[in-house]
Write a structure and sequence with these properties.
Length: 198
């Protein structure tokens, strides 16, 4: 009986400690994962049906030295619904994917920025240029969660692209810029094999 009581006490004590440890930052008012989304970028997307989407307001923050994550909204109103999430991933990391997977889901930020449709907002010009320069060294992937015209997010996830994304952009550089492709689909196979993938 003593061992049962001791075990029950130990489990109860551990539960309380775990609860306090997990919730302490939120209860104390300390920083949480929602802090720091202070890089504001505006850019349109090419939606999966071929239409032009928004432009979307991206509120971003770095979560490592290789990944920036963004919360996307159609407006800047305080009650604007979160419609998508986008990641900026260092090219050397993103380009470890097979080319066909990269092409379907990712886009080259340098190509997107070159379209002139990406705006870094709420920063002095020199800081905005530095953000754009850093972003040009990444590839992006968009997870669109709340589809246009839907009353609520219904579980449909689509993968829009940036304007300017095309298979020929990757063929022209064949991964020479910003990293190489680590997949069986590489420049050695020739342009014709790439064209059949798209």
């Amino acid at each position: 009986m003593y061992r049962s009581m001791l075990s029950l006490f130990f489990v109860s004590a551990m539960s309380v400690l775990m609860f306090c440890g997990v919730t302490a930052p939120a209860l104390s008012g300390g920083p949480g994962p929602d802090d720091g989304y202070d890089i504001h970028v505006q850019a349109p997307h090419l939606m999966p049906d071929g239409s032009l989407g928004a432009p979307f307001h991206h509120y971003c923050k770095g979560i490592s030295d290789q990944i920036l994550q963004c919360l996307l909204f159609e407006t800047i109103y305080p009650k604007a619904p979160l419609v998508a999430i986008e990641y900026f991933v260092a090219k050397d990391l993103a380009r470890k994917l097979p080319l066909i997977q990269w092409h379907r889901f990712f886009h080259d930020r340098k190509v997107e920025i070159a379209t002139g449709r990406v705006q870094v907002l709420d920063l002095p010009e020199d800081e905005a240029e530095a953000v754009a320069e850093a972003a040009s060294k990444t590839d992006g992937v968009i997870y669109h969660l709340w589809q246009k015209g839907k009353e609520f997010p219904d579980g449909t996830v689509t993968f829009p692209q940036s304007l300017g994304h095309s298979l020929t952009n990757r063929i022209s550089s064949c991964g020479a810029e910003g990293g190489s492709w680590r997949s069986p689909l590489n420049c050695d196979r020739g342009h014709e094999s790439f064209l059949t993938l798209g």
